[in-house]
């Protein structure tokens, strides 16, 4: 479980095709690896990955074919930056919202509009996720916990403060680039419970 508060920008240092539709990725992240052990979870652009090795500030993780197909990790390149967050510790402050690290879909940046002290960024909204996205609700974009400012049938917008732009990959995402989305898991549970009720 994560909070959507990014701890550091990591750098992809190696990408290796694995066997049978998989990959191995190596990420430099001195902060998140400072106490990481094999088997620990680290969120990479919102995808929960398991550490299989950690040497000199670089951790390695296996990425299954299913993850490559359902997220934007397949588009990563060596030298590129990624958002990193360690799993939340019990008893710590929950600065964002409950984030599982399970990507629900991939969207694209469709607009960026500068405001006085922030930026309004608009993303495409996959039809199958639209029912979970509401104004003032929480959503995770590339692992970042954000508040939805506005929603249309096929887009949603968020306001990004300078700290978010500077300290996450969202600040440098160009129009058309892909991002990972995770909707609020509470909405999915509520939908399932209400759907199982008999009238």
Automatic annotation (TrEMBL):
PROSITE patterns in the cross-refs: LUMAZINE_BIND
Domain Lumazine-binding: 1-97, 98-194
Record-linked InterPro entries: ATP_synth_asu-like_sf, Lumazine-bd, Lumazine-bd_dom, Riboflavin_synthase-like_b-brl
UniProt superkingdom: Bacteria
E.C. designation(s): 2.5.1.9
Pfam families: Lum_binding (PF00677)
Keyword terms, alphabetized: Repeat, Riboflavin biosynthesis, Transferase
Intervals holding Lumazine-binding repeats: 1-97, 98-194
GO MF terms, alphabetically ordered: riboflavin synthase activity
Pathway, per record: Cofactor biosynthesis; riboflavin biosynthesis; riboflavin from 2-hydroxy-3-oxobutyl phosphate and 5-amino-6-(D-ribitylamino)uracil: step 2/2
SUPFAM superfamilies in the cross-refs: Riboflavin synthase domain-like
Function: Catalyzes the dismutation of two molecules of 6,7-dimethyl-8-ribityllumazine, resulting in the formation of riboflavin and 5-amino-6-(D-ribitylamino)uracil.
Subunit structure: Homotrimer.
Protein name: Riboflavin synthase
Organism: Actinoplanes awajinensis subsp. mycoplanecinus
């Amino acid at each position: 479980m994560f909070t959507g508060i990014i701890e550091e920008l990591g750098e992809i240092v190696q990408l290796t095709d694995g066997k049978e539709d998989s990959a191995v990725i190596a990420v430099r992240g001195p902060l998140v690896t400072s106490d990481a052990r094999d088997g620990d979870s680290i969120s990479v652009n919102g995808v929960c990955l398991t550490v299989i090795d950690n040497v000199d500030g670089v951790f390695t993780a296996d990425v299954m074919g299913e993850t490559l197909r359902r997220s934007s990790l397949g588009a990563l390149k060596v030298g590129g930056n990624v958002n990193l967050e360690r799993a939340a510790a019990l008893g710590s402050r929950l600065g964002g919202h409950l984030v599982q690290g399970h990507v629900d879909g991939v969207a694209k940046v469709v607009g960026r509009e500068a405001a006085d002290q922030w930026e309004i960024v608009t993303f495409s909204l996959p039809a199958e996720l639209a029912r979970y996205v509401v104004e003032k609700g929480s959503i995770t974009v590339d692992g970042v916990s954000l508040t939805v400012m506005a929603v249309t049938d096929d887009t949603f917008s968020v306001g990004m403060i300078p700290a978010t732009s500077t300290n996450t990959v969202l600040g440098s995402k160009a129009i058309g680039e892909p991002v990972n989305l995770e909707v609020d898991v509470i909405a999915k549970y509520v939908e399932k419970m209400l759907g199982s009720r008999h009238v």
